[in-house]
């Protein structure tokens, strides 16, 4: 009797004889038409951007065709090319020469005007009897009347300007070297310091300003010595002995000074000038 085979054994042999199936590969999901259209538009947009960037950098080869078509509805803002620099306009040479000539003429006129003003002020300074020689540059009394025309008035103005505290005017009635002599005789460093300190010692401005008369009769000579104490100075300290000399145009300049007492005794007789 033929031997009957077990069905389980036959089934095992069939399993071994069947070829091995390759591993299952998951296929890419299928895109519907709308998704495919959007993907294609995105690729076109990327291609267009790459083309425009290359064009701006000058990397596009001429004759390689036009740029990719931008996707429908995609507004791409492309920066306009930078404008080329304008050529510099050179000024013609004749214009430069004209401008240089005009500038030179203006400079010449300015220098000429300043020089003319200085010369005019030198020969024709302003007429002001209250301006001292120190303010007008010294020595200008040779051409103009800027000092007193009376010797006693010259000394009286010193007292007047000391009473007002004006060293610029008080010191100006002295010859320049005598200004320092006046200050030293009174114990000060300079004429300005002397006037400013003497002002603080004035007790009566009006009396002190009129300590000396403006005119005394019987004047003789061109050099006169005037002693402050000969007139009884009041309202402040006496300023010593002055030497006044007649200079150009009948003016009187203080050319010397000597110390004297700060407080004068009352005069006993009328003073008379000495020459």
From TrEMBL:
Residues 11-21 have a biased composition (Basic and acidic residues). Residues 1-34, 53-89 are annotated as: Disordered. Residues 1-10 have a biased composition (Acidic residues). Keywords: Membrane, Transmembrane, Transmembrane helix. It comes from Amycolatopsis bartoniae. This is Uncharacterized protein. It comes from the Bacteria. The chain crosses the membrane at residues 98-120.
